[in-house]
Design a protein that fits this description.
By secondary structure, the chain is mostly helical. The protein has 16 helices and no strands. It binds fe (ii) ion (2 copies). The site of one fe (ii) ion has 6 residues, from helix 7, helix 8 and helix 13.
Length: about 375
């Protein structure tokens, strides 16, 4: 795949290693404090000085366990987190803006039973996953961050996960699916349940409000759990998880649903990149050394449940898409996430079996998305398809 598409999934402004961003880690209170306005200063009486309220210093901020006043945004220590927030706000849409009319016809009149099986179960997995994602960011991660620029992006992420849930619900309602039955599948389908259970097991301890990050063992566990969440749950399972529906889209089927997922994918790419950036910064800041065997175990567990899920989704290939390709692509994307984490590739030699994925996952005009200028799709709306 071209460097361009690899770059799209690795937004350069947000994935530079800690310290490599010009000024990112070197920002100080002095850097971030604007020069005094002399005219304004002449008119405004000075605030009464207090010995107990020293100015917030960027150097006092930390990813976790920081000592700086968390109610004060600047000076930034992590200006890249603020950039994430600004970038996230360029991807505005609601599911109501995308036409689902053709999907209703496709679902009821064109999809084969095998294709309906794939479609419904992908949707069933995603509905549960996004609620889990919302709860994890809101309850486990955001409250532990001790710099407001990190929390502000995560507040946006919580909203986006809720929006994704609305999107799936909109698809389910529009297509006339049995809500109760779709939402309940993760409880009764072992292959879906295995993925959700693994995520719950990885995340449930850090979701506890009494999980003490002053404890070094807990800090290691938090880093590993956030790594799992950002790089695997969001960066592999979501990224790869939309693929079966993109495979239908490539054949002209369920294009409205696929377009909805493309908007979600944009959010998820940022969620993954942010999680990876936070984890790398946390590791550097706290001098953590993660256990290589524990990380390998993370990848292997994730691959095993993904393989079971793929075999359930695709006992036989649907046109142009097989379980083997799905798992192979998981390994390929997992290697990419490991590289972004500066970790060894877990699946050396994995090939890009679905070279169309990055392109299909992307929306048109993607080159502008991570740049700073306004783009024509800033406010959402239905996209044009060739
Ligand atoms: Fe999501
Ligand atoms: Fe997400």
């Amino acid at each position: 795949m071209s460097a361009l598409l690899d770059d799209w999934d690795t937004p350069a402004t947000v994935l530079r290693p800690p310290g490599a961003h010009p000024g990112a880690m070197a920002a100080t209170a002095a850097d971030a404090t604007p020069a005094p306005d002399r005219h304004h200063a002449a008119r405004t009486p000075p605030l009464p000085a207090t010995a107990t309220l020293a100015p917030v210093r960027a150097s006092d901020k930390r990813i976790v366990n920081g000592r700086a006043d968390i109610n004060q945004l600047a000076p930034f220590k992590y200006p890249w987190a603020w950039e994430f927030f600004l970038n996230a706000n360029r991807n505005h849409w609601t599911p109501l803006e995308i036409s689902m009319a053709q999907d209703v016809h496709d679902y009821h009149h064109k999809l084969t039973p095998a294709e309906r099986h794939v479609f419904e179960n992908v949707l069933a997995y995603l509905t549960t996953s996004d609620i889990l994602a919302m709860r994890n960011i809101g309850l486990a991660v955001m409250e532990k961050m001790s710099a407001p620029e990190l929390q502000i992006y995560q507040a946006r992420q919580v909203y986006e996960e809720a929006l994704h849930t609305w999107t799936y619900q909109h698809c389910i309602e529009t297509l006339g699916l049995d809500q109760q039955e779709i939402y309940n599948r993760y409880r009764v389908v072992p292959a879906i349940n295995a993925k959700i259970s693994l995520a719950n097991r990885r995340l449930e301890r850090i979701m506890r409000s009494d999980f003490d990050l002053a404890d070094r063992d807990n800090l290691h566990e938090f880093a590993l759990s956030y790594l799992f969440f950002g790089a695997i749950f969001e960066g592999c399972w979501f990224y790869n998880g939309f693929t079966p529906i993109f495979a239908l889209q490539r054949r002209g089927l369920m294009k409205g649903t696929a377009e909805q997922l493309q908007y979600i994918m944009r959010d998820e790419v940022l969620h993954c990149a942010f999680g990876i950036r936070v984890v790398r910064t946390l590791i550097a800041e706290e001098n953590l050394v993660l256990d290589p065997a524990a990380i390998k175990h993370l990848w292997d567990e994730a691959e095993a449940v993904e393989a079971g899920y793929a075999r359930f989704l695709l006992p036989e290939p649907i046109l142009g898409y097989s379980a083997e390709q799905h798992v192979g692509q998981f390994r390929f994307v997992a290697n990419r996430r490991a590289r972004q984490l500066a970790l060894p590739e877990p699946f050396p030699g994995a090939e890009n079996l679905l070279p169309w994925l990055d392109e299909q996952a992307n929306l048109r005009k993607e080159k502008n998305f991570f740049e700073t200028r306004v783009t024509e799709y800033q406010t959402g709306g239905a996209l044009n398809w060739d």
